[in-house]
């Protein structure tokens, strides 16, 4: 499997990857001038040790590349994580790359994330962020309808600006931003991927980015079963 649909029109695609659980083991064993040819139970015990004791540099010798199509509200939250992770205690990982499509250069038809009538959530009772229970269908239908109207108006004004000779990089100001889908490549070490998963699979993470994290996990776990199990925990 290399492709998983997320939300209404989004997706995660596994583009490329380098290394395996064996790569992690051999990166650790090079200190003793040793190398394994096949992953053994002894090697798996070493992976457990490395993860448990926080010896994370061997996991940075494994690289994964994804193509992601997600609403801007997800992309910006993801991007802030990527920037922060290179400075986070215990990660030390700057081996990341992010390249995103831009409406300065493309004028393809904009696509927007529109929650269904049963997907709108209430604000939490005891927190300044996050969300609470799902709102009733009646409220949800009204919100979905209002959002669709808002998007339609923005797209009309965007297209009118383009037709009137406005440059694409300014015409995009008329587009409702946070729900608009954007596409990007994310290339990161296995350590960084697992750091992302550990944080964004948590129950208090925003649901939409949780859905993308689940897709990243499903695509990545078959490639690095032992490393991912130890880095993010058996309960995920």
Strand order of the largest sheet: 1-2-3-5-4
Q: Into which percentage range does the β-strand content fall?
A: 15-25%
Low-confidence stretches: none
Broad shape: elongated
Helical stretch count?
Answer: 8
What's the CATH first level of the largest domain? Alpha Beta
Task: Give a written overview of the molecule.
It is an enzyme of class 2 (transferase). InterPro entries: Thymidylate_synthase_ThyX, Thymidylate_synthase_ThyX_sf. It is a single chain. By secondary structure, the protein is an alpha+beta fold. The protein is 42% helix and 15% strand. It contains eight helices and five strands. It has helices spanning 21-29, 41-53, 72-85, 137-163, 168-171, 190-200, 207-220, 225-232; strands at residues 3-6, 10-18, 63-71, 96-100, 181-189. The longest helix is centred in the middle third of the chain and has 27 residues, at 137-163.
Tag the structure with descriptive keywords.
alpha+beta, 236 residues
Quick take:
This protein is α+β, with helices and mostly antiparallel strands and 236 residues long.
What is the element layout, followed by pairings?
Blueprint (H helix, E strand, L loop, with lengths): L2 E4 L3 E9 L2 H9 L11 H13 L9 E9 H14 L10 E5 L36 H27 L4 H4 L9 E9 H11 L6 H14 L4 H8 L4
Antiparallel strand pairs: 1-2, 2-3, 3-5, 4-5
Helix pairs in contact: 1-2, 2-8, 6-7, 6-8
